[in-house]
Amino acid sequence: MRYLTFALAKGRLAFKTLDLLEKVGITCDEIKDKDTRKLIFVNEELKLKFFLAKASDVPTYVEYGAADIGVVGRDTILEESRKIHEVMDLGFGKCRMCVCGPEEAKELLKGNEIIRVASKYPHIARDYFDNVKRQSVEIIKLNGSVELAPIVGLSDVIVDIVETGTTLKENGLMVLEEITDLSARVIVNRVSLRIEHERISKLLTDLDRIMN
Ligand code: PRP
């Protein structure tokens, strides 16, 4: 039997995924050790391998078949638009992708003038303004703390993830428009889905059962 390899997005999502996998009898204790510098973990008995990767790299590993299965947020799947199959919503990591800004920016979203949009998600932002709103925008790519952009005058609005809304509130910003709902998703390599169909569908059925 060949190994089935999982790529998990580092951080909270990975730990939640490991908890879920444990409930269906898939364990990998070693990966939970916060002090380890190992990059890949093996469950010999079940012929499974696991590795943690930066979220934005997970769809890449899965597209190229370096991982058969990935778990990553829908935000990353949309932003990376890789050739992969999204097969399951795990229901955790729920949040929203929104256009946010100061209240005054509401008017700018109604008008025809070119506005500046800062985001860690330039493709999602571009797609929304080009194809949904049909408004001309200049997209400015940032790598974090995006809420700063409208505060210091780098952009008019931002496109970012809103979970509790606390970051916005504490910085005098608000949700102006909702783009889409997000949560953790299971993605599968297109070839693996065919050649490992039996093992993968059993896993998905087991996950589905414990989630419902
Ligand atoms: C995310 C997102 C927001 C924040 C939203 O940032 O970009 O800044 O969480 O959460 P809230 O609605 O619960 O306040 P993240 O923590 O990933 O860090 P970042 O600043 O590097 O984007």
Q: What is the number of beta strands?
A: 11
> What summary fits the major beta sheet?
6 strands, mixed
Strand content: 25-35%
How are strands sequenced across the largest beta sheet? 2-3-1-4-11-5
How many helical stretches? 9
Can you tell me the overall shape? elongated
Q: What can be said about this structure in brief?
A:
The chain is α/β, with parallel strands linked by helices and 212 residues long. It has helices at residues 12-23, 58-63, 74-80, 105-108, 122-133, 148-152, 166-170, 190-195, 197-211, and strands at 4-9, 40-43, 48-53, 69-73, 85-89, 95-101, 115-119, 137-141, 157-162, 174-182, 184-188.
Structure write-up:
By secondary structure, this protein is α/β, with parallel strands linked by helices. The chain contains 9 helices and 11 strands. It has a 6-stranded mixed β-sheet with strand order 2-3-1-4-11-5. Strands 8-7-9-6-10 form a 5-stranded mixed β-sheet. The two termini are 30 Å apart. The model has no long low-confidence stretch (mean pLDDT 96). The site of 1-O-pyrophosphono-5-O-phosphono-alpha-D-ribofuranose has 13 residues, from strand 9 and helix 7.
Question: Which short descriptors sum up this protein?
Answer:
11 strands, 5-stranded mixed beta sheet, 6-stranded mixed beta sheet, 212 residues, binds 1-O-pyrophosphono-5-O-phosphono-alpha-D-ribofuranose, alpha/beta, single chain, 9 helices
SSE inventory with pairings:
Elements: E1 4-9, H1 12-23, E2 40-43, E3 48-53, H2 58-63, E4 69-73, H3 74-80, E5 85-89, E6 95-101, H4 105-108, E7 115-119, H5 122-133, E8 137-141, H6 148-152, E9 157-162, H7 166-170, E10 174-182, E11 184-188, H8 190-195, H9 197-211
Parallel strand pairs: 1-3, 1-4, 7-8, 7-9
Antiparallel strand pairs: 2-3, 4-11, 5-11, 6-9, 6-10
1-O-pyrophosphono-5-O-phosphono-alpha-D-ribofuranose (PRP) is lined by residues 120, 144-147, 160-167.
